[in-house]
Amino acid sequence: MLATHISRAFFKLCHGNQLVYNTCWEDPRLDRVALQLGEGDRLIVITSAGCNALDYALDGPARIDTVDVNPRQNALLDLKLAGIRTLSYEQFFDLFGRGKTDNWEAVYTDAIRAELPEASRQFWDKHGKFFLGQGRRPSFYFRGTAGMFASWINWYINRYAKVRDDIEALLAADTVEQQREIYESRVKPAFWGPYIKWFMRRDAALSLLGVPRAQRKQLERYYPGGIAKFVEDSLDTVFSELPLKDNYFWRVYLTGEYTKECCPEYLKEENFARLKGTNGQPGLAERVHTHTTTILDHLKGADCNYSHFVLLDHMDWMAEHMRDVLGLQWQEIIDRSDDDAKYLWRSAAVICEFVDPITVNVGGKTRRLGDILEYNRELADELHQVDRVHTYGGFSIATLRRDGVSAEAAAAAQGAGVLGYAAGGRANKKTNRTTGTAADGGAQSAKNAVSPDALAHSR
Predict the structure, then answer these.
(1) Annotated domain spans of the chain
(2) How far is residue 321's CA from residue 316's CA, in Å, rounded to a whole number?
(3) How does strand 443-444 pair with strand 421-422?
(4) What CA–CA distance (Å, rounded) separates 249 from 388?
(5) b or e along 245-266 (b: 16 or more beta carbons within 10 Å of the residue's beta carbon)?
(6) Lowest-pLDDT choice from 65-79, 160-174, 363-377, 426-440
(7) pTM to 2 decimals?
(8) Helix 118-127 and helix 71-86: axis angle, to 10°?
(9) Is residue 212 a contact partner of residue 353, using CB atoms and an 8 Å limit?
(10) Of 4, 242, 270, 350, which is the most exposed, with the fewest CB atoms less than 10 Å away?
């Protein structure tokens, strides 16, 4: 179809030579509960903006390999790693907390530049302007394609909806009840008009956020009202049901900067010190290594197995356009997995149907992934309920069982709840719609949800 062709072309244009993600939009607080990382563990993760790889490092795994086909994403993580090694905490927070510095040339040229790999050095030689705090996008967090979208949203808030003071009040609210009152009475009526709904349905707009047409189609297959309604319901949950005090994802998106009280873990002073190292001892950041390649090619050349895999949402696109390659990738994943390895991925799809039918060779036998992946659907549902980002339809946690999933585990994974959760998928609770049984798991209710307070102290 012409629309599909145009959408793919625009997506490629946005992503072909751009930094896409300037910050990670997956909540690592959930991941660390799900993964239970510790000494000796070896983790592979898609780089994105690198924030979460640094977050995982705080749990002390032996090695974290970050993989991304976009060299600009690895350049960003390389910049953070070099900054951790060479800068003071305040200098580092200026760059990645405030998103700007008054002294870029000295900080970059005198300290960071010599620590960068050549490809990353070439990128930042050209794009250091991202941190100058100048122009119409005066923060690093308004740069890149996702940052361009954030900048436009802030223009809309300031100039069209005219709710900047209300947004500031919302972020400063002490309780969820206060948030709800501000959001429902002042912010939502002004913000969520027909223009923004029309804009959110456009593939071009979603491409800036790294959301291809395939992901939108997967979500709309099961979500009443489609992408615009999904986003509206997500915002309702974030701003009226979950605490904003520590929601650094939406704070940086709405203001262009973090605060020291509301920021990713790697930007907190005590954690920066652990990542940097003290008294001549190497810091935890030295265990993080960047690779510009595909997961498939990295695993083919890897010299070790891995205990944990964080696959983000990249399989959504592969399932639509590269299903054969996705099968090859899973074969390499299984071959390079420790026994009882853990896998974590997200999906735009409320019901993720494309993973379990994939076949792989295990011990000389052809097996479906659905027969060797043991899902922890209850934990996925509990965590997904309190996801501070709240923009994914599905969240899956699985453990490798080479000898096959037990009958008891398979039965436990086939819950029969009414909210329509599948592998951690998020239902449209306002319509109380049951989505039925997915190929990689049954619908399951989200009962006994983990509280934000409990998660905050789970480290």
Answers:
(1) 2-75+286-456, 140-255
(2) 9
(3) antiparallel
(4) 7
(5) bbbbbbbbbbbbbbeeebbbbb
(6) 426-440
(7) 0.87
(8) 90
(9) no
(10) 270
